[in-house]
Write the structure tokens for this entry.
Amino acid sequence: MGFGRPPQDFFVKSLPEGVIVPGLVNAHTHLELSVLNKKIPEGCGLAGMAEAISSERTLLSSATARRAAIEQIANAFQEGTWFYNDISNNAEFTGFLRSVPEFTGNRFLELLGFQSPNDEQRMQIGKELIESDHEVILTPHSVYGSSPAIMRFVNEYKRRSLLSIHLLESMEEHDLPHERGEIWEFLKKIGQAYRHTEIRQKNLLEYLYLQGIFSYKKLLLVHLSSAYPSEIDYLSEVVPHAAWVLCQRSNEHLHIQRKNWQALLNSPLTMLIGTDSAATSPDVSVLKEMYQILKQGQVSESRIWQAATFSAYDYLEISQSHVPYFLYPEARPTLESIASHAKAIILRG
Ligand SMILES: [Zn+2]
């Protein structure tokens, strides 16, 4: 797309005609859930998804799950996706990813547990892992998935001042401080509906602020699909340096409808693109995600390219000298054409 300097190979090799694009960044996924591809019912909502995932927990630690993740990475790579922010719930899986040569990216260990002793167990696992793995980053899941103690813990053990959190993905999240609604009912069902005084009757964003979650230099706010304009104003004021990670196909799969496009696009937040997992999205290819966003008619094509490439390199501090380039043979320089000629030839930068 004419971004940046051309790769060296460009001058010395005879290449087919096509379009050259720098590697795409998937700013949010869970590769460990790849094995659940096509297993989460459409329109099941957030609580339905959480339920479906927890019923498959044993499958997630299997060799099949690891093969499924490698397959997703390989397929997305052919379509130009090269760098990931991977969020794993399982310390073994994140250790496994470290050994996968095809994987490039940040590895986060998500500490899931809303009530003790679950949250304490997860914090202990996190503590042990960061001692042996110097790259893994501890992170909370969401306001309803991680207790206030976990929020404070990840803040205390922060690494690279980088944090990723699912935030305001669905309207039901607003009901959490009032201890009602679908998410609260789901927490009750799994024995995790603890009445935290830190959260009760509070505004969720103020709660996160008080736990130190907004003190990070790099803050990945995943989804914000159900954030009200007043909440976007609050974030614009308090954390204008945060990034908003859009996972359009996953939202659509769960029938979550975004009404705040323009408020977010006009805010100072940096837009990045993720796929969420291949459980709620057909795959982890950012190119497919970009095309789906384009089809909404809300975001310009140039801004979508920016979000998947240079904004992401800047935000995630990825050195541009490490970025590979991909040639899409026979494609014309439009997202629609590139997405339809998705099999790329890799050209190292
Ligand atoms: Zn996610």
In short: The chain has two domains: 1-22+324-349, 24-322. The pocket of zinc ion is lined by residues 28, 30, 87, 166, 222, 276 (CB under 6 Å).
